[in-house]
Amino acid sequence: MDNVKSSPDNSLVAQVLIFAKAHFILVTFLAIVVRALYKRYASPLRDVPGPFLASCTRLWKVWSTYNGHTELDHIALHKKYGPIVRTSPNEVSFGTCNAAKDIFAVGKGFHKTMFYSVFPPKHAPDIFTEVREWKHAQMKRYAVTPYSLAQMQKRSGPIESMIMLLMEHLIKYADDSKRVCNLGNLLHYFAFDVLGEVAFSKSFGFLDAEVDIEGSIKNIDDVQWYDGIVGQIPETDILFRNNPLRPYLPFWKPEPTTMTKIAVAELEKRKKKDGTYDSTGIDLLAELLRAHDGSPDKFSVQDVFSIAHGAVFAGSDSTASTMQSFFYSVLNKPDVYAKLQREVDEAQKSGQLSEIVTYAEAQKLDYFQACLKETFRIRPAVGLGIYRNVPPEGIMIDGRYYPKGTEVAVNGWVLHRDKSIFGEDVDEFRPERWFEKDAKLMGGHLYNVSVTRSEVRQISEVANSK
Questions:
Q1: Which of 267, 304, 318, 346 could form a disulfide with 288 if both were Cys (CB 3.0 to 4.6 A apart)?
Q2: pTM of the model
Q3: What does residue 271 show for φ and ψ, rounded to 5 degrees?
Q4: Residue range 1-10, pLDDT digits in tens
C-alpha cells in the first residue's frame, strides 16, 4: 500500500486534482475553450465557411432565433460566405435550390432532426412533429384525402361566410375615417376563425369580437417562440417545458387555449355511447374520423385529434402570416396596387368574378397570381431553417460529400434569393418577374416552405408555375 501511495503516477493525479479544485473556474473555462476549438478544427466540416462562433457552439443559433431575425441572419451569412455556410459545429446551411432538391428528394434517406421533438404535444406528435419516419408516413397517408383540394372546396360555404364577415369589418372601418384599422390583426383573427370552421365547423369568435380571446393567439406565439429557441438545443427541453417536476408545480401548469378547449369538446361531442365516433360531416375532424374508422389500429383517435388541432394551432399562424405579407407588399408598392386593382375591376365588369371570388376564378387573375407567387418568394411564412439529418452512410449534396452526423438545413428566405434563378433584383417585390421568359424556371424552384403542423405534404413541396 505504501508503494501505491507513493507512486509517481498517483502523485501526479493528486496534484492535478488539487489544482483543479483550487482553480475550478479557470479549469472549467479552459475545458470549454478546448472543446469549442476541437469542434471548430477537428470536425469534417472545418473547411466549410461561416462565423467562427457558429463553428464552436450552437449558442450562435440560439441567439439568432431569440432575437427573432433568423431569416435575415441567414440571408446575410450566405451573402458573405456563399451558398454553403456552417451554422453550428455539425450543421450546414444551403442557399441553392439544387442543394434543396438533393435534400428533400423522395428516397434520399434524410430524416428529421431532434429539433422537431420539442414541439408539443410531446405524447402525441402530429405530422409535423413526428420524427419516426414510418409513423410520419402512416399519418400522412391517412390525412391526404381530407387535405385534398377537392375536399377543401367542399368546405367553401363556411369560408365564404367568414369572408363576408371580414368584409363587413373592413367596410365599417372604411366608413369611419377616424377609426384606425389594424389590418394585420383582422387577418390573424380571420385565419383562426376560418380554420376553426374548416377543422371543427365552429368559429372561435376572434373576428366577430376583434380581440384575441383568452390570449390564445399570444399563447401560440409564445409556444412557437419557445419551440424555435429550445429546438436549437433540444436536449435542454427537459429543463423547461418537459421538466418532470412540472406536473407537481401548480404555478407552472399550462392552461389550455380556447381553440384547444373547442377541439376537445368537439371530439367529445362526436363520441357515441358505444365508444365509436360520429364521422358524418364535411369538416376536417369528420374526414379524419372516417379515416380512423377504416383503420383504427393504424390511425388512432389521438392521431385524429393531433392533426385536426394542429391544423388550427399552427396552420392559422402561417396562413395569417402569408396574408399579412401579401397586403404589406402590395400596399407598399403603389404601382403594383394600381395594376392589381385594375385587373380585378376589369374582371368584375366583364362578369368573370362572383361576389365571393371562387378558387377557379382567382386562378384566372394572372397578375393576382403573380403577386401571390412573389409573396411566397420574398416573404415565406417561416423564417427558421428546415432541418434534416444526413443518412448514416453519408451523402453527396450539390457536388460535395457530407458524413454521418451532419445536420443540413435550408431556409426559404435564402433559397428565394438565388440570383441565378430569380434575377439580380431578388430583394425587390416585383410580380412582373413572373411574366418574364424564365418564369417557368422560377416556378420550378419556388419552395412553398411552411412549418404548419397540419401539413400533409412535406416541407419541401415545389410549387409548379402556371
A1: 304
A2: 0.84
A3: -85, 130
A4: 455 455 565 6
